[in-house]
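Much of our argument rests on the idea that a fold can be written as discrete symbols. In the encoding step, the backbone of a single protein was reduced to a row of integers, each denoting a local shape. We regard such an encoding as a compact summary of how the chain folds. The record that follows shows the chain in one-letter code together with its fold in token form:
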Amino acid sequence: MRRILSFGLSLLMVAVFVGFFVPDLARAQTTDETIRDYQVDITVNKDRSVDITETITVRVLGQEIKRGILRDIPSRYRRNDGLIVDLNLEVTGVERDGQRETYIVSQEGRYTRIRIGDANVMLEHGVHTYRISYRVQDSIGFFDEYDEICWNAIGDEWDFWINAATVSVTLPPEAVIGTQFAIYTGASGERGSDYEIVSKTDNRLVVRSTKPFAPGQGMTVAVGWQKGVVPSPTKAERSEALLRDNIPTMVLALGVLVLGGWLYFAWRRVGKDPKGGAIIPRYRAVARPVASPCQLHHGHRQLHDRQPVHLHGCPH
């Protein structure tokens, strides 16, 4: 009897979920603006650069998407020692429906923002396909036993549902992926597994999502390969890159040190107080008294008795 009741309660919960949440999900994907398809192609080059092309098909209804779309790509991060690494993201092309599209690139904190669209042109309602191509540096991890590219391919910054997503990673011909790969789906920090492998060869991996991504969800892909395919940067190259990425911080720190040194020098030179000692009061009589003691006493008595003050009657 208990098993029957438990089974009945489980069916009831499933029915409630399907009745309340699934229609909302379907309605959101049919009546709101959505990303119908999101394809990301990642190519690792032997010069340590990485070329990335994003093909995004969106449904435009004039709700949030009016003149174009915004693509925010994380391009700066801070290491454990506090130093900043800049991926030096360079946009190489933007298209809409197969034609070149207007775009503006700006740096918004740790993100490179690509603002796509003409401010004076409203998009026609319907389906539009954007193609964004860019190149990044310093995005490959060089470890003792293997090298790796780890990329947040489907960013979790989108405010729209993503119905379908596909990510491909292509390595140089000499590379062998083997079992050295991992894919995570969901919100930031989650390690979901809502994906499937479409194809896999020695140097290429293609995966796709198995369910739609809600706003704030995405896909991260990590693929490793054997050492020696992509030359590791030398110590001099690493130092040069860190110096280049941290010049503003170093200039600020140098300015603070110079200002602090100058203030200390000025304090030592003219701003230092003399050594303290005992304070001794010193008194001296006036050269010519205004009134004698007798006159002062007489005036005080008259003030006390509320009488006019006359200083006569006392000897000078």
